[in-house]
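Annotated sample (chain length 473).
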Amino acid sequence: MNEATGATSPEAAVVSGSDLVDLVAQQLQALLSAGNYDAVKMLLQPVQPVDIAEAIGILPRTLQALAFRLLSKDEAIEVYEYLEPAVQQSLLERLRSGEVLELVEEMSPDDRVRLFDELPAKVVRRLLAELSPAERRVTAQLLGYEPETAGRLMTTEFIDLKEFHSAAQALTIVRRRAPDTETIYSLYVTDGERHLTGILSLRDLVTAEPEARIGDVMTRDVVNVRTDTDQEEVARAIQRYDFLAVPVVDREQRLVGIVTVDDVIDVIEQEATRDLYAAGAVQAGDEDDYFQSNLLVVARRRVVWLAVLVVANGFTSQVIAMNDDVLKHVVLLAAFIPLLIGTGGNVGAQSSTVVIRGLSTQRIQALGRMKAVLREAMAGGLLGLLMLLVVVPFAWWRGESLLVGAAVGISLMAITTLAATAGAALPLLFDRMGLDPALMSAPFITTATDVAGVFIYLRTAAWLLQQTNGTAF
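Output written by the structure step:
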């Protein structure tokens, strides 16, 4: 689709999405290898910048810079902002110094800051020194905010109006500043000291009478975030109110920037990736570059948590060793240990998953933390009761005695209830302590319930043996 006209090119109408990107990448590589540069320009002309960026990322490194140089200046800047960080860095190394400076100078401030976060400090210092004074000041300001906050995420390219402006004057200002602004659909009103006093949409401005004062048509109750607000909170605010952008203010309520919805989508994806990695006990990198990382990095990210889990699982072996007398009396008890700890681990993983997701979507807050834990505990007990109907008759038949069936049944109820309670409570405890609740992931819950489950099972069997033949363990 052409951004200016909304028209769809014939090529884009045939294929879309990943198929389009693959097709463009194949044709692009063939034309570049043949040296047919005019055909490359014609090929890329109807393609969206985001698709061009993805296609360039697929090309061999030797052809990426060549393809990028064939783009027009304005298109090159837009395409560059969509490229993966690794490709951006590679292009900076291959482009001439003047091309790099022009590219970085024309980037929007928030995209420039994200690029600088990925570059070596020495390169960042050099690029900062070569920027124009205005762009250097803006970039340094954004880099001064804490990572993963609204201040680091925002852009300073927005349109602010004054209450005394007429609608006609405001439209003139919008027309003049629109080319240098990230979005014009939300317009902000500030006073002489840049304090945020109101907001109005472009629709409100266009439909207002030309002589109407902005102060009379704007909305004074403005939802905003502060520069130190966590990026997840910013994303939730935009999601909750269906905003295209949310204003960012400093401690004195002065408007310093806006966070747009496209940046928030990136945040949501980044946070979801981290949570998924944490849920699988995998150490996440700064970006979702797992499949581009070499095997040594992959192993390093996973071995730390695996080592912790191996040590924790050692307690399970210790519990079994401490109760070996019980197993010597009834060897068949050992056959049901995998069943019980597997069931407990699965129930605990289910509970931790729904609670972590509930914290992410803030649904838990509506129910209440204690009610959520109690609900999961009751669900665990009910699940244990339902599984008793299948497991206990089988255990009784296999063990050819009431003892094995009773030990398995009592333990199953206790383990599922305990696992569900722990799976719900531990993420909530971590969240209350200010830690990432996703750290209480399925592997950790499973390991904890393994140790507790084996202990409960063997001590229950020992107690039943003591009751039946008077032997104590």
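Annotation: The longest strand covers residues 196-201.
Annotation: The first helix runs from residue 10 to 14.
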